Amino acid sequence: MKKFFAACISVFACLFIYGFSFAETVSISGAVTNFSSSSNLALDDITIEITGTMNFQVKTGKNGKYKISGLEKGGTYTLTVSKPGYDFVPVTKLFENLGKN
């Protein structure tokens, strides 16, 4: 009985510290690609800034691939790509009321 009581207190403490929110999350994934046939630009290490309901940055991995997980379902997010010396079209992509991956 004492062990069960201690476990319940631990769970309650975690819920209290981190909040009672069990909101559904979604993700955005894709790749930043180079459509220019005249050059072989490396597409890794490109910054993607996420602004809106949540704000943070991620970097693309090998071949420009990225995955942004843990986004609040129903949120609005703007993704902006950048890397010094590079031009992107489009620079931003808007996701409104993001309901699924």
Rg, alpha carbons: 19 Å
What value does the average pLDDT take?
Answer: 81
Shape: elongated
What is the topology, as strand order, of the major beta sheet? Answer: 3-2-5-6
Order of helices and strands: HEEEEEE
Strand content: 25-35%
Which sheet architecture does the biggest sheet show?
4 strands, antiparallel
Number of DSSP E strands: 6
Number of helices, counting only DSSP H or I runs of 4 residues or more? 1
Can you give the helix content as a percent range?
10-25%
Name the poorly predicted regions: 4-20
Structural category = alpha+beta
The separation of the N and C termini measures 43 Å
Describe it.
The protein is of the alpha+beta class. Helices cover 17% and strands 35% of the residues. It contains one helix and six strands, in the order αββββββ. The strands form two sheets. It has a four-stranded antiparallel beta sheet with strand order 3-2-5-6, with no helix packed on it. Strand 2 and strand 3 form a beta hairpin. The protein is elongated and about 45 Å long. About 17% of the residues have low confidence.
